[in-house]
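can u do me a favor
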């Protein structure tokens, strides 16, 4: 790899705040991770699922995460997988300790709720990026794995740049906006509306993705963001991957409709979400989103 993993990160702690990870995927993910990253990996999560597939009770999942935050030996926190359950434990997460530790946290999907709540609490070094049992458990000798690994290492090393090379966005609304980039899962963002864990999104560049959601559910959630005043305060909007949902033929029309609610530029087709490759993004990094009117989709 042209961008090496930081030598200062010597131990990666793996957590599961959602569903219990599969042991075979954990092993495969660890093996692939060690091929790329010269750091020790410690897994601190239950692999025997409770009813509803949680990786332990709410209290156990939160304690395991908080213990990794408090451990002086652990330098980096990596999610094992997503699923469901993070929003149930947000009150039990020690965000003050996480902020003071300065440790990076990496994940996506259900982990979006943790990243957003941590960003609101003043935590930095938050990465919307690969998880052990999904991205890292891929077949390593593929272009998708290489692209995701390269993107992850760029973010970890502070060398991430937007937009990425060879990305040709679909421009739905022209303009230019600048603000902190906030990548997240649409369903989880809506789940935080009305809670104390929703960060301030005024003048942000929001990046949205989702999976297994029919087009009418995406419509409903985008409308919820519109009615909550979120869309009208953004500096720009980027649509990522919306995959494995029903009635996807309606999706382009839905995305164009809600583009009109954004004061700034809106683009679609960003490689971020539940399909591969999905590129990593740092939460809160200031970016400029430019969309030329000559390239309107």
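np, heres the sequence
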């Amino acid at each position: 790899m042209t961008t090496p993993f930081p030598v200062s990160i010597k131990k990666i702690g793996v957590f599961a705040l959602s569903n219990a990870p599969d042991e075979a995927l954990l092993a495969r993910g660890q093996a692939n991770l060690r091929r790329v990253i010269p750091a020790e990996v410690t897994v601190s999560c239950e692999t025997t699922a409770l009813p509803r597939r949680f990786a332990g009770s709410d209290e156990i999942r939160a304690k395991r995460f908080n213990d990794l935050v408090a451990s002086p030996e652990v330098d980096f926190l990596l999610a094992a997988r997503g699923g469901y359950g993070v929003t149930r434990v947000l009150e039990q997460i020690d965000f003050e300790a996480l902020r003071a530790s300065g440790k990076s946290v990496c994940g996506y999907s259900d982990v979006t709720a943790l990243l957003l709540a941590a960003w609101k609490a003043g935590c930095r070094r938050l990465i919307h990026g690969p998880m052990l049992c999904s991205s890292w458990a891929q077949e390593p000798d593929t272009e998708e794995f290489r692209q995701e690994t390269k993107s992850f290492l760029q973010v970890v090393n502070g060398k991430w740049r937007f937009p990425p090379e060879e990305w040709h966005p679909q421009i739905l609304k022209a303009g230019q906006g600048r603000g902190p980039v906030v990548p997240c899962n649409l369903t989880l963002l809506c789940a935080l509306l009305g809670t104390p864990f929703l960060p301030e999104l005024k003048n942000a560049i929001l990046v949205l993705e989702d999976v297994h959601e029919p087009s009418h559910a995406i419509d409903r959630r985008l409308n919820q963001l519109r009615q909550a005043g979120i869309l009208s305060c953004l500096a720009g909007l980027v649509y990522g991957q919306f995959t494995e949902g029903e009635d996807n033929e309606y999706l382009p029309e839905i995305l164009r409709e809600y583009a009109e609610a954004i004061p700034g530029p809106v683009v679609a087709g960003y490689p971020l979400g539940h399909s591969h490759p999905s590129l990593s993004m740092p939460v809160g990094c200031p970016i400029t989103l430019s969309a030329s009117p000559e390239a309107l989709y």
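The first strand starts at residue 11 and ends at 15. hope that helps!!
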